[in-house]
Amino acid sequence: MTAPDRDRSARRKVLRTLLDSGALAPDWVPSFEAVPRSAFLPDLMWPFGMDTGTSISVSRSDDSDTWYEYADADVPVVTQWDDGAHAGTEPGRLSTSSASMPSVVARMLRDLDVRPGARVLEIGTGTGWNAALLSHRLGAANVVTVEVDAVVAEAARARLAAVGLHPEVVIGDGLLGHPDGAPYDRIIATVGIRDLPYAWVQQVRPGGLIVAPWGTRYSNVDCVVRLVVAEDGQSASGTFTGAVEFMKARSQRYRVDQAAYLPHGFPGGAVTTVTNLTAADLGLDDRLRHPFAAVSGLLAGGCTLLADRRGPAVSAWLYSLTDLSWAAAVLTDGQAESTVYESGPRRLWGELSRAHQWWVEAGRPDPTCFGLTVTADTTAAWFHASGNALPLPLSEHGGSSGKPVRISRG
Ligand SMILES: C[S@@+](CC[C@H](N)C(=O)[O-])C[C@H]1O[C@@H](n2cnc3c(N)ncnc32)[C@H](O)[C@@H]1O
């Protein structure tokens, strides 16, 4: 089978699977058929194995069959490492641009609920594939896409032009939106957001939608939020549609300096308690599909979780974002109880345990039971309906403005 034949049959199979699973809305099928992801991928690319958690190098000039196999598969494909500083064929340290999984692209476009003629601003051009799908469906004159990395943006512009599509590609910080083209009917972000910019609310018309992967700094998990801009244009509110994991907006990446929490080594002056929570209870091995793992960033606020599995044991560390409190436990499969070490004014494992208890008593809700309201001053997470409070006070510090971002409950 030649590469183009293989391309066509594999693509048809993936599209059928996406349609059958409900990820791909029927009105998007013509665009997915007309605009192949392979037209937006570079010769050298790094498909990411969802099961292995690692990327491999694949070159079209060396092995075109394998290259097309991955181009058409439902996997994310990394196209840039380390903001472009990485050279060579092996994967780099941090993936910084990619073509997202086709199922995720399809789901987010379904959530966007657009009709031909709608004006859309995309944040995170990446390869340009999503902008191409939007342009095919809505007309390129209705699509603006913003990319922070000039090299990535130029490559996307060239690939879009090669398939005859010419949306406006803007090089800049998408967290500012693109006021020159406002108001938009929709904004879609294809990059993970920790502090949702109010500029986006201001640039979407009343009744319009913002679809974005949003999360707290508890973990790398994002939940896709679908916000409707209020009639007075002052706020936006809506529920989450599911858990995903995107690379984070450049200025909102977050890395804990673990050494700062343990200046005198482990366990320092930590106190010990016992937990009966297990790695399975917390979803530490399955962060996107486990409903507690997907929502725990909303419930256990103001801290970051780092978990590392070695054989039957998972080391779980919690670091406070409001002071230097920390907690740690080694959770071994099949073991009913584990020792917990906690240090500092906050008892972080206690907070996580109470969040888990609340979640169990609330009927183990998944992300679709929660939502977000964004105003000029606050981002507030809620449960079921915007009047319903969540169990714990939650605050984080961050944001590109350096301004404290309050995540309040209810
Ligand atoms: C997952 S990729 C986007 C995938 C893309 N939509 C596609 O179809 O291939 C995320 C992109 O967001 C870009 N990005 C990160 N921070 C950004 C920001 N503040 N503004 C605009 N783009 C940003 C990254 O450089 C990267 O190219």
From TrEMBL:
Alphabetized UniProt keyword annotations: Cytoplasm, Methyltransferase, S-adenosyl-L-methionine, Transferase
Family: Belongs to the methyltransferase superfamily. L-isoaspartyl/D-aspartyl protein methyltransferase family.
Keyword Transferase part of the UniProt annotation: yes
Places the protein is found: Cytoplasm
EC number: 2.1.1.77
Protein name in the entry: Protein-L-isoaspartate O-methyltransferase
One GO cellular component term: cytoplasm
Organism ancestry: Bacteria, Bacillati, Actinomycetota, Actinomycetes, Kitasatosporales
GO terms for MF: protein-L-isoaspartate (D-aspartate) O-methyltransferase activity
PANTHER family reported for this sequence: PROTEIN-L-ISOASPARTATE O-METHYLTRANSFERASE, PROTEIN-L-ISOASPARTATE(D-ASPARTATE) O-METHYLTRANSFERASE
